[in-house]
Amino acid sequence: MTATAAPKTPSVWEDFIDIFISPSQVFERRQNGNFLVPMVVVTIIICLIFLGTQSLTQPVFDAEFARGMAAAMRNNPQITADQMAKGKAIAEKFQVAFVLFGIPIAIFFVGLLLWLIGKLFESKMTFAGGVLVAAYAAFPKIFAAIAGPVIAYFSDPSTLTSATKITVSAAHFFDVSNTSPVVLALLSRIDVFTIWSTILLGIGLSVLGKIPRSRAYVAATVVWILATVFPLYQAIRTM
After folding, report:
1. Is 192 left (phi over 0), alpha (psi -120 to 50) or beta?
2. Which of 6, 40, 99, 202 has the lowest CB atom count within 10 Å?
3. Nearest alpha carbon to residue 204 among 67, 5, 35
4. SS3 call for 200
């Protein structure tokens, strides 16, 4: 009798398509996988998109920097215009570095939170598993990186007064000049791609943690809430 050939395991590159259409299958077959590959891939893709569209989002950077400097001058009136100009030049040079290192740091942070919160729900997922889930859950951010420049392209540059203006979030519809920074920070978390990523966190936790999907979604929601603390802290500092 002829032996039946074992089904071929999809390559890791197929994961980057399947994570959008059948995420549970990706997490099933990569339960013992390495988080470095998806982390590096999503970081490089977003960095390339950022570099290729930087000119479109420059008005947002200018507006955010001006607002940050205004807040700094309120707290320290001794800051001069020359110091502000030098600070802006340095910030512009390091924008790519912020993206390049910020994405992996964010993935590790979310993975850590998911692992710890998962323990409260009797998850069996390891820390490395949490980071792997967080890395794959970051893939919707690629679409967010594309959506921002697209919105900027079709917008009047004078309306790009805040980073929220190039997001697909509830904060997009509010004017930064007459809305509390805290409210904007909260509304910015009600974002299509952030919610998508949170759903992926729940699916990944359910598969790797061996817990019911309903409990995993609750845990992922708790992670979403805790991850909101950082933008809230930043918003309070600007007030």
Report:
1. alpha
2. 6
3. 35
4. helix
Other C-beta atoms within 10 Å of 37: how many? 16
DSSP one-letter code for 165: G
For the chain, the average pLDDT equals 89
Structure tokens at 177: 């000049």
Does 225 have pLDDT greater than 50?
yes
27 closest CA partner among 142, 143, 134, 140: 134
Residue 113 contacts residue 223 (beta carbons within 8 Å): yes
DSSP 8-state secondary structure symbol assigned to residue 2: P
Q: Which is nearest to 163 in space by CA: 141, 185, 143?
A: 185
Measured distance CA(22)–CA(140) in Å, rounded: 13
Looking at residue 117, the DSSP 8-state letter turns out to be: H
Q: Which of 81-90, 170-179, 228-237 has the lowest mean pLDDT?
A: 81-90
Dihedral through CA 188, CA 191, CA 194, CA 200, nearest 10? 150
Q: Which two tokens stand for residue 161?
A: 């007064």
Q: Which amino acid, 81?
A: A
Q: Which residue has 């999809």 as its token pair? A: 10
Query: What pLDDT, on a 0 to 100 scale, did the predictor assign at position 7?
Result: 58
Chain centroid, CA 103 distance in Å: 7
